[in-house]
Design goal:
By secondary structure, the protein is mainly alpha-helical. Helix content is 80%, strand content 4%. The chain contains ten helices and four strands, in the order E-H-H-H-H-H-E-E-H-H-H-H-H-E. The protein starts with a strand and ends with a strand. One of its GO terms (molecular function) is G protein-coupled receptor activity.
């Protein structure tokens, strides 16, 4: 049995050092808190948005692997279709809604920075909206479990097999909530921001800090605006597809039977929209180099912190005459 020989240790010398070791543990938790929350609110929102994209990509990969290695009957194919569409649609809803929230935050930060609401309730507003976005996105897409399925003659085609009036109403609502409304808010907001930045003249002469803040704001706005632009552009084809299906009440299988060209165009449109979750991480790295450098710097700081505290802990035991490894009998 392994134990520490207490008679070898100088208790008067070790107790203060153990107290110091406990303080170091507390310092590490404090350091970890600063690392986690040291990023700006925009960076944290972007990271949360990227998380939903990663979830969507993993879901797509698992689905494709399942299709490749297993033969699915009608029931297993329908179940896989429903889970895939629900997770992917919820992820997309969270992403586009987060971009809308970031656009609104940019609007207040640049055009109305002195607004009492923005200055006093900014943090509470962002947190409440973040929670609301996740809850609403998860709830709004629940009907896909009831409406989505595969066809008995084609267990790989995920579709709305029977488009009734209720399904048409849901498709129209889906397009309005997940596509038209956020795309309109994003376009109008960034349009006003661009006009404001082009026409605004700073009174007096800006100092170095003011000039750097202005540059940072413009870079952040450019990054978020570019990512939002990609989202808006890629959602347009899919919006037309869903609206067309809702109006004509034709399933994808019916469209494929009537016109293979139309089916391929629809398939291409949906693929373009789905690909944005794969492109997003590269957009973040391309436009938010500052965030990437900051993340790498902080990871290096964590590594150095752990190394320094490990050396310090070993010194505690060495100075007391006892090695960190317990003596064996």
């Amino acid at each position: 049995m392994a134990f520490v020989d207490l008679q070898v240790i100088d208790v008067k010398n070790v107790i203060p050092r153990c107290t110091k070791y406990g303080v170091q543990i507390r310092e590490f938790h404090s350091f970890r808190f600063r690392i986690t929350y040291g990023l700006s609110r925009h960076s944290r929102l972007i990271i949360k948005k990227a998380t939903t994209n990663i979830i969507a990509n993993i879901t797509s990969l698992i689905t494709f692997i399942q299709i490749a290695i297993h033969h699915h009957d009608y029931h297993s194919g329908s179940l896989m279709c429903r889970y895939y569409v629900y997770i992917y649609a919820s992820s997309y809803g969270i992403s586009i809604s987060t971009l809308t929230l970031l656009a609104i935050d940019r609007y207040y930060a640049i055009i109305r920075p002195l607004s009492p609401f923005y200055r006093i309730y900014r943090r509470q507003f962002l947190i409440t909206c973040e929670i609301g976005i996740w809850i609403l996105s998860l709830l709004i897409h629940i009907p896909t479990f009831f409406y989505m399925s595969v066809h008995r003659q084609d267990t790989l085609l995920c579709d709305f097999p029977d488009i009734t009036n209720s399904v048409s109403a849901y498709l129209i609502s889906f397009v309005l909530i997940d596509n038209i409304l956020p795309s309109s808010i994003i376009s109008i907001t960034y349009g006003r921001i661009i006009i404001h930045q082009n026409n605004y003249v700073q009174p007096g002469q800006m100092g170095r800090n003011q000039l750097q803040n202005d540059i940072n704001k413009r870079q952040l706005t450019k990054m978020l605006g570019t990512i939002s632009f990609f989202y808006v552009i890629t959602t347009i084809p899919t919006s037309f597809v869903f609206l067309g299906s809702a109006i004509t009440q034709k399933s994808l299988l019916k469209i494929r039977q009537d016109s293979l060209v139309a089916f391929l165009l629809i398939f291409f449109s949906i693929s373009v929209t789905a690909s944005i979750s794969t492109i997003n991480p590269f957009l973040y790295l391309a436009f938010d180099k500052k965030l990437s450098k900051k993340a790498l710097t902080r990871l290096g700081a964590i590594r150095n912190f752990i190394y320094e505290k490990t050396i310090s802990t070993r010194a505690v035991f060495n100075n007391s005459g006892q090695t960190p490894t317990a003596a064996s009998t």
